[in-house]
Amino acid sequence: xxxxxxxxxxxxxxxxxxxxxxxxxxxxxxxxxxxxxxxxxxxxxxxxxxxxxxxxxxxxxxxxxxxxxxxxxxxxxxxxxxxxxxxxxxxxxxxxxxxxxxxxxxxxxxxxxxxxxxxxxxxxxxxxxxxxxxxxxxxxxxxxxxxxxxxxxxxxxxxxxxxxxxxxxxxxxxxxxxxxxxxxxxxxxxxxxxxxxxxxxxxxxxxxxxxxxxxxxxxxxxxxxxxxxxxxxxxxxxxxxxxxx
Length: 245
Prior knowledge:
Elements: H1 3-21, H2 31-37, E1 47-59, E2 65-75, E3 83-90, E4 115-122, E5 128-140, E6 152-154, E7 159-164, E8 167-174, E9 177-184, E10 189-196, E11 199-206, E12 212-224, H3 232-241
Parallel strand pairs: 4-11, 5-12
Antiparallel strand pairs: 1-2, 1-12, 2-3, 3-6, 7-8, 8-9, 9-10, 10-11
């Protein structure tokens, strides 16, 4: 994936909470920063729909599956943006996995990074781990219909959890965003995925064997293409005026 797409993912992920809870707050930036941002902006009013879908799952050697999925969609008609959470739990038909004996050292700094962070650290055998981020940008004259809400509303400061033979999952509202954490049973490892004001993070640590882990985040952005061509430069000027204090 190109660097510009990674930067777009970080900006869009970080804006999920501020777009929902705060107004636009201009801040001064240096000439150097302006040079780096040239050509990477969106005029006010162009985004008519923003949505985020996240899922984290862990399947162990016996086929037991634990995980969760969450989604949020924001439009001009949205009164109070909310994350909706569904937990995932399925039972396999294999024998209980042996206790994980792997040991991963270090990695403390992964919890304090900004932007987009993806990490997979493994100390076991025959494991598969995927950290994926997708950005879907489309253009339309109208915002898409809101999908029916599925799952439980995640309130501020709340945690929604579930567990089975594969382990436990906890979805928590943090820093205006959301965090999904999986603790696998039998010391098989951990998985963490979060979107908050500091950016997007996907981390997996594997200590056992024959595990399948997936962290997925999809950002959906719809841009308004129904701009009045007759307005020309005056329309762009009016949009720029909206950036002033």
